[in-house]
Fold these 2 entries.
Entry 1:
Amino acid sequence: MADTSATRLKPRPLSPHLQIYKPMLTMMMSIVHRITGGALYFGTLLVAWWLIAAASGPSAYTTFETFIGSIVGRLILFGYTWALLHHMLGGIRHLIWDLGYGFEPTEREVLTVATLIGSIGLTIALWAIGLIALGGAR
Amino acid sequence: MNAPHHIRTPIGRVRGLGAAKSGTWHFWHQRVTSAALVLLTIVFVVILLNLLGRNHAAVVQILGSPVVAILMLLFVGTGVYHMWLGMQEILLDYVHDEKLKIMSLIASTFFCFMVGVSSVFAILKLSFGV
C-alpha cells in the first residue's frame, strides 16, 4: 500500500457522477430505491417503538396509539407504508434483473413503471382497507 | 490453471479471496435477505391489517401467539440484517472522510443492534409474558 502523503495529495480523476447524465426513469427509480431503503432504516424505530409499547403495557400502548393516530403520526405511517411497498416491489425488480431477465428497453421501462404504479396503488388500497376496517370497528 | 507461475499460495486460491480480503458475501446476503423479506413483508402487512382497531389486550394476545411471534421475529431479524448491509453500502458510497466513515459504520451497527435487540426482546416478552 503506497499510502504516502505524495500519492494521497495528488488529485485523482473521478468517474463522472449522476449530474453528468440525462435523468432516466430507471436511474431515478434506482435513486428512489436507495432513498426508500434509507427511510425504512429509520422507520424500524417506529416498529420497535410499537413492539416495546405493546410489551410494556396498556398506558405505553395508548401513548403509541395517540401518536400514530395524530396527523403527523399518520403521515409518517403513510410514508412508511409507501416506502416499504415501493422498496419491496423495487427489490423484486432487482431480483428479476439479477436472474438475467427484463433487460430489453421496453421490459426495463415496463418493470420500472410497474414498480411505481404498483407501490402507489397498493399503498392507497391498503389504507382504504385499513380506514374502512377502523371505521367498522368503532 | 495452466499458468505454472502462481504467486498466490494454495490456501489463498482455496479461499478465492484477493486483496480485498472478502468476496461476494455482502452482495449475496443482501439478495438472500431481500428474497426472504418479500415474503416476510407481505406477512408483516397482513399481521398489521389484522391488528387494526384492536385494543391492547387483543394485540398482545395475537402478537404473543407462537406463529405470529415467530413470523415477527423472522421479519425483524432479517430486516435488521438487510438494513445493516444496505446502510453500510450507502455510507461507503457517500462518506469519504476516513474517520467519519469508520465512526458512521460503527454507529450504524450500534443502531441496528439496538433496534433489533429491542424488538426481539419485546416480541419474546409478549410471547412469554411477565
Entry 2:
Amino acid sequence: MNTKSMKKYGPIFVLPTFAAFLIGFIIPFIMGIYLSFCKFTTVTDAKLVGFSNYLKVFQDPTFVHSLWYTALFTIVSVITINLFAFTIAMLLTKAMKGTNVFRTVFFMPNLIGGIVLGYIWQLIINGVLLYFDRTLTYSATYGFWGLVILMNWQQIGYMMIIYIAGIQNIPGELIEAAKIDGASKWQILRNVTIPMLMPSITICSFLTLTNGFKLFDQNMALTGGAPSDKSQMLALNIFDTFYGRTGWEGVGQAKAVIFFILVAVIALIQLRATRSKEVQQ
Amino acid sequence: MDKKNKVTFGTIFFSILSVLWLFPIFVVLINSFKKKTYISKMPFSIPTDKAFVGLKNYENGIKKIGFFQAFGCSLWITIASVAVIILFTSMCAWYITRVKNKATGSLYYLCVFSMIVPFQMVMFTLSKLADMMHMGNPMGIIIVYLGFGAGLAVFMFCGFVKSIPIEIEEAAMIDGCNPLEIFFQVVLPVLKPTCISVAILQTMWIWNDYLLPYLVLDITKYKTIPIAIQYLKGGYGAIDMGAMMGMLVLAIIPIVIFYMFCQRYIIEGVVAGAVKG
C-alpha cells in the first residue's frame, strides 16, 4: 500500500488506543515491577528496599496456604469442567429433540457476574448444609467444594459451546471410514474424535486453567476467605495484602509480580504441552 | 426403533438436567418473596402466607443500594466502553497489520502479552494512576477499559484483518480514497462480524466486572451493579438476606433479556474468541 499517505494518518489510527494502553496497562505494569522492590504506602513515597518484599512473601503463611489452595482448586476444576463439558458436548451433538434449548440453558450461568454467582451459591449450599447443622464457613473444605461446584455451573456451558463447535468441524467421512474399518465406539473416540479435537481441548484447558488461577469475585462473594482466611485464594490474598494490612503494600506488589509470573509460566507450559499433540489437518 | 428410543431417553435425561441447572436461580427467585428470617431457616420452601412479604424485599433493596442509579451507571459504562473499544481498537489493528515496521510490530506483541497479565499485577498502580489523573468517574473509566481491554480486541481484529485481501483496499486507494475513507467505507463493513464478537466478549466482561470499577471509580458517588450488591454485605455488618435476594433477581433480569435477544451472536462470539485466542 501507499505507505506515505498511510504514515501521515498513523497517529489518527493508533494514538487513541496507544494512549489508553499506556495509561491502562504499560505504565501501571512497569511501575508495578518497580514498586515490588520498594516500601511505600502511596506511590509518591516509594523507597527502594531491594528483595526484602519478596523474602517477606514466602515467610507469610497466608500466602503459601493460598498458593496451595489455589493450585489444588485449579487442578480439580480444570479436570471436572472439561470432563463434564466434553461429555455434554458429545451427547448434545447427537440427533436429539431439544438440543438447542439444552445448549441455551447450560450456557446461561456464564453471563452472570462472579459476585452475583457467589451469593446465589452461598444461599444454595448453606441451605443444603442446614440439614447437617453446618454452614459454608465451617471449614475451608466446604468453601473449596462450593467453589468447585460454582465454577462448574458457570463454565461448563462456555466450554461446551467450544467443544460443540470443534466436534461439528470434524469431517463426517473420518468417522465413517473408521466405522467401515470396524472400529468400536471407544476406539473412534480415542483415536479419531479426541485427536481431532485437540485445538478445542487446548483452548478449553487454557481458559479453565487461567480462570481458576485468577479467580477473585466468586471467592470473595462465596466465603470471603472464611474461616480465618483458610479458603482464601491467591488473588484475594493479594487484594487483602494491599488493602487490608497497612505497611504491606510493597509485599502485596511483590506477591502480584510472583502471581503474574506463575500465571504466565503455567499458561505457556500448558499451551506448549497441548499444542504439541494437535494434528495438522 | 431402537434408535428412536435412545433419542427420547436423551431428551428426557437432558430435560431433567436442564431443570436442575436452573434450580439455583429458581431458589433465589422464591426467596426474594420471603421474609428475611425465613430465608436462612428454610431456603427451599415455597413462601406461604406467613413468610410471604410481596415486593417488600425489592423495595428495601432498591432503596438501600440505589439499584436504579447503579443500573444506569453499569449500562453507561458498558455501552460507552464497548463502543469506544470497537472503534479505536479496530482502527489500530487495521493500521498495525497493514503498516509493518518495528513500532507497530512491538505494539502488537505488547497487546498479546497484556492478555496473560492478571489484573492483580496492575491493580494498585492503575488505581493510583487513575486517581492522579482524575479518571475516577464514569467518563475516565472508559479510557481505563479501552487501555486494559485493548489486548484481546486488537489481537482478534488483527487476526481477521490478515484474512482480508489487500487488493480491495489498493483499488480504493487508486480511486483516490484517503486511509480514513478506506477504513470506514471498505474495511469496517467487512469487519462487522468480528466487531460483534468483540462487542459480546467485552460486554460480558465489563458488565460483570467488580474489581476494576471498585478500585478506579469514586464509589461514594458511583456504583455499578456488582459493587452495589457487594456493598449490601460490606456496608451493613449482617447481610439483609431479603434485600440481597431481591437484588440478585434484579441483577439477573437484564442479563436474561440480553441473552434472549443476542443468543446467536453470543454463542458465535464465544466460538470466534476461542478460535482466535
